[in-house]
Amino acid sequence: MFSKPLIALSITLALSGCVTTPAVQHQPFTLTVAHINDTHSHFDPVKSSFSANGVEVFNEFGGYPRLQAMVKQYKAQAQKNDQSLLFLDAGDAFQGSAYFKINQGAMNADLLDQMGLDGMALGNHEFDLNNQKLNRFVSSLDFPIIATNVDVSHDTNFNGQTNILPYQIFAFDGDHKTVVKDINNLPKHKNLVAVFGLSLQDMPNIAPHTGDVKFLNEVKTAQSTVDFLKSKGINDVIALTHIGNATDIALAEKVNGIDLIVGGHSHTLLGDFTNIGWSNFGPYAQMVKNPNGKASTCIVQAGKYAEAIGKVNVSFNSQGEVTNCAGHNTLLSNDVFYHKSDRKPQDKFTAAQTAQVEQFIAKQKNIVIINEDSQLRHEIDTKYKPAVEKAYGSIIAQVPTEIIHERRPGDSGAADKHGSAVAPLIAESQYYWANLPQVQKVTGKKVDFALIGAGGIRTNINEGEYREGNVRLEMLPFSNYLSVLSLKGSTVKQLLQDTITATLPEGAHAGKYPYGGHIRYTFDETKAHKAGHLTSVDVMSGTEKHPVWTPLQDNKTYNVVINNYNATGNDGWTPIFTAQNKHSNRIDLIDVNGKLVGYKVKKIEKQGDKYQVIYQGKAPDCKAANTDCDTDAQAFIDYVGQTRHQLVPLSYSVVTLDRIATK
Length: 663
Hints:
Strand content: 25-35%
Structural class: alpha/beta
Oligomer: single chain
Radius of gyration: 25 Å
C-alpha cells in the first residue's frame, strides 16, 4: 500500500527543508473536467420540479442512463475538438435507494464501470456495508479509488488491495490521455496532471463501520502531497475530495498549490439556479486565495442524487498556474412534463405547452433535456429492476401532495425558515411508536419527545401510493434501531446549539441538522453563516389538533427517543456521547424472532476515533438470522399505517431558523 510510504515521504520533505523541482516542459493548455458526486445509488431519475417562465413544471432529473448520455456527449465533443478531458466522481456512490439495499456494491460497480470514470474519491457511505464488501467493490472497478489520506494497511480486509491509490497521474496530448505509472520517469512534451484524493479525517465519527482503516489529517496530507508532486515536476494538481464545500474552501485557504478541487459530501449544487425557481447555491468555479497570497484554487461540486453533472474548463500557463477556471452544473431533465406532482395522465402538458417549456430550457445554460442512454436503461430494467419492484411490499398510505425533505432550512430559498416537512413526521412517528404500550413494556419509560438528524433521511415522500418499501429501502435505508435514553434539558439545548451552528456556513455538510417530534425550537442567526443562538425550546403535550407547549427546563430530565447512530453521538451529536460517557440508562430496541427486545447500555467509550457502546449484557447482533434492526423504519410504517392513512405534513412547525439577510 502507498499510505505508509506517503507518511514517510511527508516526513522526508519536512526534514529536507526545500525541494528542487525538475525541469519538465509544460505547454499552456486547457483541461476539461466533468464531475459527479453523492449519486447515492440513484440509478433511476429523481422526480422533481422547476419553474419555466413562472409556470410550475413537474419533471424528472438525472439517473445513471441520463448521466451516461451526457458523459458520452462530453467525450465526443472532446474527441472532435482534440480537447483534454477527465471524468471524476467525488464519492458517496453507495446507499440511498432500493437498488443498493438489494444489490449493495455490485450494481454500483457494474454501472460506474460503464461510465468510464478516471477516478473516484472514497465517501463516508462507502463504509455503510463492511470492509470486506467495500474491498470487493474497489477490486471490481476498472478505475481507481483515489484516497491519499486513507491508510487501509492496518485492516486485514484490504490485504493485497492495489486499486486504492494516493494519486493518479495523467499525461495529455490533446484528446489522447495516458496513465503514468512511474512518477520517476515522466513523459516529456506532454501536459501532466495529477489527481490526489481526500476523505473525511473524522470518518470514524461519521461512518462507524470503518474497521481498522486510518484517516490522516486533510490539510497536512494535502500540502505534503502537493509538495511531493511538484518536486517531481508535476505542476497541475487536482484534489478530488469528499469533505464538503465549506471544508473545501477552508482547505484552499490553508494549502498552497492545489489548482482545482472537485468536491462532494455536502450535496452542494453550486451555481445560480434562480432562473428555474430554485436558489443561488453559491459560486461555481469559485477562486479561493491560497495562504501564500499569490495563487488561487478553483472549487466545484455537482449537487446530489445524479440529478446534475458539472463541467469545468481549467486553463494553465507554461508555469502550471491557473489563468482561467469557468464552467457550470447542468441539471439533466426528461421531456415529459406535468402540472401536478402525482403526474396523472390528465395533468400532462399538451404538445404546445411542452414546446414552450422546451423553448425555455433551450435558452438556459444550467438545465438541458437529454434522452437516457438506451443500453444502460435496458440493463437496469431487465437485470436489476424486477427484484426491486418485488421488494416494495404493502401500501400503507396515500400521499395527496409531495412532502419535501431538505436538510437545512433555507436550502430551497431564503424565505424558508422551517426546512424539512419529512423529518418532523419521522420524529413524530418515533415518539408515537416509543409510547405504544408494547414498547413501553420493554423500556419502562414514557418518552417526552424525539430527535432526528436530517442526514438519516434520504428521500422526499412522493405523491400517490406509499409502500413499506418506500420507507425501508429508500427513505430510512440504514437499518438503524431506536434508542430510548434520558437527557437533561441543558444537554438537549447544547446539542441543538452545536449542531445548528455547525451547519450555518454556506456549503457546510448539513446531515447533522436536528429536527424533532413533540419538541420545537427557534434559532436566531446573529452573524451570517457563522453564529447564532437558541431563543426558545418547547416540549409539546396534548395532541396535534390541540397542542400544549411548555419551555424546556435545563435541570429537568427528559426521556428521548433517537436512532442509535445519533444516540451514540455520531456526526457531531457529541453532547449525547458526553452525557453517556460514564453512565447511561439507554435501551436499544430491536426485533428478534418477531419479539421486541431491549438491550441495556452501560456507557459509551471513545476508543481511538470511534464511539463504542458498552452494553450491560449481550450486545445486539444485526447480522443474526431473524433479527430486524430497522426499528426506525418500522416505527414510521406503524405510525402511518395506524394513524395517518392520508399522509400529510404536521400542522405545526418544529423548526424555525431565522437567518440574517445577506443580500
